[in-house]
Amino acid sequence: MIVIQAGAALDVFDPSPQPARQALGSIGAAGRQALAELRRVLAAVRPQPGEQDGWAPPPGLSGPGGLLDQVRAVGLTVTARIDGAPADLPAGLDWPPTGSCRRP
Q: What is the pTM of this model?
């Protein structure tokens, strides 16, 4: 929504400044609303004081060794097969696997 409004503001900025101002006002309002929502989400998931000990993000697909070590640490036997060479993934894509593990 913000990107569409910004593009529209650029298109009409010189010939029609009033619609451009309205679009820019909408962009500001949408941005403030998004930041407020993000703050609420972060407040809900952020560790509280004293809870940070031992906290770390879950291991992702680029480092399966850490995930396998965690599973082994609780006493489970784990075997893994990795086909192909590992690839570096951007942080937004390097999530822990879900549903990709199966039992024999």
A: 0.42
